[in-house]
Specification:
Blueprint: E1 11-14, H1 19-27, E2 32-37, H2 41-44, H3 47-57, E3 61-66, H4 74-87, E4 91-96, H5 98-113, E5 137-141, E6 153-158, E7 163-168, E8 176-179, H6 189-209, H7 215-237, H8 242-255, H9 270-281, H10 287-304, H11 309-320, H12 327-344, H13 361-372, E9 378-379, E10 383-384, H14 386-396
Parallel strand pairs: 1-8, 2-3, 2-4, 4-5, 5-8
Antiparallel strand pairs: 6-7, 9-10
Helix pairs in contact: 4-5, 6-7, 6-8, 6-10, 7-8, 9-10, 9-13, 10-12, 10-14, 11-12, 13-14
The structure holds 5,6-dihydroxy-NADP and zinc ion.
Length: about 400
């Protein structure tokens, strides 16, 4: 077991019957709320009126900012922060998916720190500097994907420079979040699939390259992966089932809680670095979809380069009950079974199918290295430079399913 820190300050409420305690808690943090939503799904479904009536019952005043895009744009965040500042809000309520929650954290940071633009604060920018703090953020996630409802991260996109990069502070961690599975039953199947892929990524990243030092982190991560593997097909068949939606939602929160890596060697999230560069290039590419495109190629590339074969074999044993002492065989079978699961659940494609053509691979790899490696190769149990990144991207082109 290696040393680690865990800090999860968010007061979580899980369940559709938890509205009252959640809104009581929320109202203890402020009385002038900026409600931040996306393109309107929460209005169309009627959820929005429920939420505002809970606020009004408690005498909480609210202002709405509507229009956060998937892969939230820095420029939209800047506009929202200006409105929040003008209205004198003291609390942000993020009501939507990861994009809305991330945008809300950035808005909270800009208002508190009396700044106008978020982009200079993201990782890898030449003008990178520090925010001073943030207004409290409460969240009601409507996707099971990012765990932004507990994380310190806000991932920001900037289509003007084809960039996508995080800004992370401990003070971005939401003060309270309401996980209400009923608000997930309207989620389109495509977004549900993308979200499941993202949940999976948050545990597989360090599971593969973080070493063998924490058996409990291994079991915890396998439990989350198993839950995703079993639950996604059920949700796709029965999308309005609250219980299945709840299983995915709780798995998503726990997947990026930091407990999933506790005791292993801390590592960067390689697939995330590559995927953020891909979504930066194509802002229409959903994060989970980009990750799904990379999985088989990345796993095969690791194997061909004789990296973490033991971990792939362990995964095969735990997830698919592959029983052989031959590590190469177990790892190869694990990748094949995983690939099959992606196919069965509509998550199998090439990068060129999701709006990143092969002639963009070099530019995307350069971005990943500049922003995520600080100009140096990344480390995926060994060097992962531009050449290797392009090899992985090229490998996705074999995924013609
Ligand atoms: O905008 P609306 O109209 O709400 O529609 C959204 C959007 O089109 C729709 N949607 C969400 N909830 C719905 C719904 N439609 C119907 N019913 C509902 N209940 O779903 C679409 C996608 O939403 P989005 O928020 O973009 O998806 P997701 O939750 O996957 O968030 C992705 C963003 O989070 C970042 C990603 O990079 C990406 O920018 N991440 C944030 C992390 C964090 N903060 O810690 C970690 C992750 O690894 C990730 O990078
Ligand atoms: Zn992710």
């Amino acid at each position: 077991m290696n040393s680690f820190e865990v800090h999860i300050p968010t007061h979580l409420f899980f369940g559709s019957d938890k509205a009252d305690p959640f809104f009581d808690k929320l109202s203890s943090y402020g009385s002038q709320v900026l409600i931040v939503i996306g393109g309107g799904s929460v209005k169309r479904t009627g959820y929005f009126d429920e939420v505002t009536s809970h606020l009004e019952k408690r005498g909480v005043k609210w202002t709405l900012f509507e229009g956060i895009e998937p892969n939230p744009h820095a420029q939209t965040i800047d506009r929202a922060a200006a409105i929040g500042k003008e209205k004198g809000v003291d609390l942000i309520l993020a009501f939507g998916g990861g994009s809305v929650m991330d945008a809300s954290k950035a808005i909270a940071g800009l208002i508190y720190s009396d700044q106008k633009n978020i982009w200079p604060f993201v990782l890898g920018e030449p003008k990178y500097k520090k925010l001073k703090g943030a207004l409290p953020v409460a969240t009601i996630p409507t996707t099971a994907a990012t765990a932004s409802e507990i994380t310190p991260h806000a991932v920001i996109s900037n289509p003007e420079v084809k960039g996508k990069s995080p800004v992370s502070y401990s003070f971005f961690k939401p003060v309270t979040s309401w996980l209400n599975p009923s608000y997930h039953t309207s989620l389109p199947l495509e977004t549900t699939r993308d979200g499941a892929s993202d949940i999976f990524s948050h545990v597989i990243e360090n599971y593969l390259i973080g070493g063998n030092d924490s058996p409990l982190a291994d079991r915890y991560s396998e439990g989350i992966m198993q839950t995703v593997f079993e639950t996604l097909p059920k949700v796709l068949k029965d999308p309005e089932n609250d219980a299945y939606r709840g299983d995915l939602l709780w798995a998503s929160t726990l997947a990026l809680s930091t407990i999933q890596v506790a005791g292993r060697v801390p590592t960067v999230f390689i697939l995330h670095n590559l995927e953020h560069a891909l979504s930066g290039y194509n802002p229409e590419l959903a994060h989970g979809r980009g990750l799904a495109t990379l999985y088989p190629a990345y796993f095969k590339w690791l194997m061909e380069n004789n990296r973490v074969v033991d971990r792939l074999a362990l995964l095969g044993n735990k997830l698919f009950d592959i029983q052989t002492d031959n590590e190469d065989e177990a790892a190869a079978e694990c990748i094949a079974m995983f690939e099959e699961w992606l196919k069965e659940n509509g998550l199998y494609q090439r990068l060129s199918d999701v709006g990143v053509p092969t002639d963009a691979f070099s530019e995307v790899a350069d971005y990943a290295i500049r922003v995520y490696g600080g100009g140096e190769p990344l480390d995926a149990a060994g060097r992962l430079g531009k050449k290797e990144i392009i090899e992985i991207f090229n490998k996705t082109e074999e995924q013609n399913g």
